[in-house]
Fold:
Amino acid sequence: MISIRNFGKTYGDFVAVENLDLDIAAGEMFGFIGPNGAGKSTTIRFLATLLRATHGEATVNGHSVTREPLKVRQSVGYMPDTFGVYDGMKVWEFLDFFAVAYQIPKAQRKGVIGDVLELLDLTHKRDDYVNGLSRGMKQRLCLAKTLVHDPPVLILDEPASGLDPRARLEVKALLKELRRMGKTILISSHILTELADCCTSIGIIERGQLLLHGPIDKVYRQIQRHHHIEVRFSGDQEAGVSLIRSDPHVRSVQVNSRNCVVEMGGEDADVQRLMRQLATSDVGLLSFADKEPTLEDVFMMVTKGLVT
Ligand SMILES: Nc1ncnc2c1ncn2[C@@H]1O[C@H](COP(=O)(O)OP(=O)(O)OP(=O)(O)O)[C@@H](O)[C@H]1O
Structure:
């Protein structure tokens, strides 16, 4: 549904995105993850036909981003990372503005606007001024706007940024609903946990390079060979930590106030050996838990070059 080949964008000497190749199949919810300035918006704006590439090509819903931008725009609902609106515009007028822009016939516009307001649970805000809406409502309205022309593809640039935890959950539930409706969704975020349980595939970008991408279960499998162990001590944490650090399979130890998190390679037997060593030495081991990797762990390991 989305295919990017050799995309690159430079600003003067600065390389914002370098030789990016990516395929996203129909029906996927693809999480585009990276820190600030990684190149997410640059890639997204290229897909949304709003940015000229330095090199490379992409197709969305079978249409070329560079040669058929109007067809791409009909296929895409794009939500930018910043939200702008004219003063004195009501919620329904905002949606009507986009419905007109997408050439939805007048006779259908009222019905379409009613439908998207209902889907986004905004019907009761129909006649409110957009500027008076809370941030969460504005984000939802912006999502509503991406749906007026019923596009098969949604490209959403940090749709949950700046929202409180409850509003974030609401956005997530909406995205799941949209996926059930058959939309292909690309969503960017630097909040990794936000995407963990709703994406079917992910890509990790840093400094303009796509470091890793693929189905989420495959990415998790790739890092299964790395153990993330949370260790707590009731006694001498320092002695415990230096014992851990002396293990040849240990790659890093992050010491926190109440625990430490150990990243280690090796086999299960190596982990068991370290656990036995800690339990039988005099460091006051309280707990030792081999955790399932979180998306946060995946990101840290990929950006540190531990997983390729
Ligand atoms: N018009 C521009 N001129 C010069 N540099 C730019 C321009 N637009 C973006 N950049 C730079 O390109 C890099 C990638 O920017 P981009 O907005 O794609 O990052 P991002 O991953 O979306 O980050 P964020 O999460 O902060 O939105 C950044 O270093 C940014 O400063």
In short: The CA atoms of residues 35 and 190 lie 5 Å apart. The first strand starts at residue 2 and ends at 11. The mean pLDDT is 89.
